[in-house]
Fold this protein.
Amino acid sequence: MAKVLVTGAAGFIGGYVVQELLDHGHSVVGVDNFSKYGPVKHSYHDHPSYHFVEGDARDVDLMTGLLDGCEHFIAGAAMIGGISYFHAYAYDLLATNERIMAASCDAALRARKSGTLQKMTYVSSSMVYESADSWPSAEGDERRIAPPLSSYGFQKLAVEYYARAAWDQYQLPYTIVRPFNCVGVGEGRALGQVEVLSGNVKLAMSHVVPDLVQKVVKGQDPLHILGDGNQIRHYTYGGDLARGIVTTLFHPDAVNDDFNLSTATSTSVRQLAELIWRKIRGADVPFRFVSDAPYEHDVRKRVPDVRKAKRVLGYEASTTLDQMLDEVIPWIEEAIRDRRL
């Protein structure tokens, strides 16, 4: 069994990754500064193989110390949000995440030279394909198409350059993973979240699934959707993403390579909205929606090529959107009743 450092351990995807590692018998050191949600306690918080440190991933000395004895480092810490973040915090996303990435790499290089670190796993994003003009987007396309327009997408592309540069100069082995549109439980209202009025309801979160669920639960009718609803996404379960990330840690053919981690199923925002509506309001209530003006960086189409992950890793994201919503909707309904949203 391995000892793994996970930064961003209290985050949305990070929580699923830590649970996946613990379920497979690994020892985990989790780091988070609670900058997004505030203090978060997970079910595994008191697990004997989990050690949590409240700290800043920009602290190179802290990170170096925590990497002592670790075979793997999953660099998941980042200032991250949905579409509203890209505009409200355009500079902070770029500057903060660059500092996190540089510090993480500096610590990993020290640990690789003096310790047990075998590989660094970089959590990138589907946003590296933001400027794609043909689909599906395959690994390697991110270096052939125009760079992302948003500062967030641009910085995530820079993450991948860090990975390759650290290998080229210092032979720090890497794997790059690109999650697509994570769906799951555990996401709350972000600290510093810009309040955006969407019809008669303020957006609780800037990710589309929890946003739509909470608006339908609160009785919004007609439902307000950003844009015309024809935007295409691949909604992928957090547990599936975690399984894919952990698979890459130990697969010999994942070394110095990159992988799209996603469901193979395309869904439009309108299809998603109507599915959520039916699950909450029932089949007899007519689905009504209106379109609000979209954000500038609301990508029209994001479709991954998932064949490489299946071919190389034997990995597929198998959870259906129906199954995801059956888990997420009750969780959000409870959060609303408890006034957490």
